[in-house]
Amino acid sequence: MNGICELEGSHREQEVEMKALKEDMLPSEHGEWLRVCPLSALPEQAGRSAWLGGRALALFRLGERVYALDAVDPLAGVAVLGRGLVGDCGGEPVVASPLYKQRYALADGRCLDDPALRVACWPVMLSDDEVWVLLG
């Protein structure tokens, strides 16, 4: 039961921090918060693709934490990262491209297998069980 309480507590902390961040953001300087979907629309431990603000995104839900990366695989040039395999590498959440298998860190988009590769990573906010992404 303690683990659930800790998870709920960390989710509330993330939500409070992101609400403060959203209130402090100026659309002209930092982008715009856009609603993506209800949290329940994202499966646990998997990715989904979304078209948002003229950009293909890959969204990943791990517990109550959601990550957003650009969906385009840098090597293949196609939006497939939302269909990648989600896991961890040394405790760090990653997605492996379904085409060439490079692993990208969900927290910042860097490639663990090739330092020359990277995908854009976008801030995510959970508010009232809705997923919001800050695109700039």
TrEMBL record:
Pfam family, one: Rieske_2
Ranges of residues in domain Rieske: 34-133
InterPro entries documented for this protein: NirD, Rieske-like_NirD, Rieske_2Fe-2S, Rieske_2Fe-2S_sf
Keywords per UniProt: 2Fe-2S, Iron, Iron-sulfur, Metal-binding, Nitrate assimilation, Oxidoreductase
SUPFAM superfamilies assigned: ISP domain
Top-level taxon of the source organism: Bacteria
Protein name, UniProt field: Nitrite reductase small subunit NirD
Organism, as annotated: Aeromonas eucrenophila
Classification lineage: Bacteria, Pseudomonadati, Pseudomonadota, Gammaproteobacteria, Aeromonadales
Gene: nirD
